[in-house]
Amino acid sequence: MFFNPDRGSGGKIARQVNDFLIDEDPTLQLPGAAEDRIGLLGWRKYDDLAKSYLNAKDAFADQLIEEHGPFRLGDIWDGDRINRNAALTVFRHFDSATVVKGLVGDTPLTAWVDYPIFERIHYLLVAGFNVYGPVGHQLAPRMYMDFLRMDAENNFLRLMPADQRQKMHDQWYQGVFGKIITFIDQPYFSAGHETGINFTGSDYKREFFNQLRDRLGGAAGPVDNIDHCIESELCSSEPAPLQQEIAIQMHRIASLKGKETDLLPEMSLLRIRTAAADDDPVYTLLVNKGLKNVAVMFAENLRRHPEKDTVTVVPGFIGSYPNFFFSVEKEQLTEFIELLKTARSVADKEKFYSRFGVRRSNPEIWRYAYWFNARHRKYRGLHAGLFDLNRYQNL
């Protein structure tokens, strides 16, 4: 989400923010400015600058709150209730990611707020990043990204009840060590100032996103990512009985948690076979991996919380690197879901994948790949491209 650039006090806040950013220009340097000359330990300089900026940013946020009142829902840009760029959903698939417009999926664990941070992420990891650069250049932006993430998270936390911020923050940074631990002991989310949002229950994040969806209107996208598509050309205003029947089964998949998700790779495409073969519906199944934290670059398996795993089910296509294709007859969806939930033995897994999956060793794999690519083109036209199967698994 993004703060409204014209929020409050006749634009005075926006002018204060602009002046603050100009004053902090020396501390806002990005590692990419040093290019290949940064050296292996050059990240230390930029980490020190980032720490200094976060400290100044927290003091500045406190000043804004004291002058203009607490952060409110109205401070979030609403995109005139039609601009789908007003809220973006990011899905990470191991070492790639997909960004889609609107609020897609269930309540997220974390959220980021502010456009300048979003812009700096682009210059840090895209425009100013050399994928063929030396180790120092590769390392520094990744280390610096920690501070941009925390900065954006802190903006979100300022919208949460003051007595809940540390608890939420600690849930995101379980088992951290090294430099990140200082930002748990010394928070930068205006801990002494209350939010301007009125909460009536105790599920604060869910309530916030419900309020946000009401504020954004059409800019937030469809309410239900199962019953409605995120691509308008895929949707009808009144789902047909067949669509409703399939949607009920997709809700069952979306409710899977923990070990029930074990048989799904991070990103898979599900074709549901119907009488209209060329128009068979497609759903993307995304496993949201539970992690104790994302503050460390390596050893992700050591930070896993598999019991926290969930599934997001989206009509149509999300992602460019499918890990697996599933092809299931509509009448077999119940069996597919039951096996997905319960198959644990080697024999049961073999039955599941051989019955419903398309392995790399399947001689028909290219026919399936052609079908999914053709369906994708029908949905998105020139924006579709071709799926990259380099990360396709032979489950």
List the helices and strands and how they pair.
Blueprint: H1 12-23, H2 43-68, E1 88-93, E2 96-101, H3 115-127, H4 135-157, H5 165-172, H6 182-185, H7 204-216, H8 241-254, E3 267-273, E4 282-288, E5 310-315, E6 324-329, H9 333-342, H10 346-356, E7 357-358, H11 365-380
Parallel strand pairs: 3-6
Antiparallel strand pairs: 1-2, 3-4, 4-5, 6-7
Structure, described:
With 395 residues, the protein is an alpha+beta fold. The protein has eleven helices and seven strands. The chain has a five-stranded mixed sheet, sandwiched between helices. A hairpin with an 8-residue loop joins β3 and β4. α2 runs parallel beside α4 and α3 runs antiparallel to α4. The longest helix is centred in the N-terminal third of the chain and has 26 residues. The chain is globular and about 65 Å long. The two termini are 37 Å apart. The relative contact order is 0.11. About 3% of the residues have low confidence.
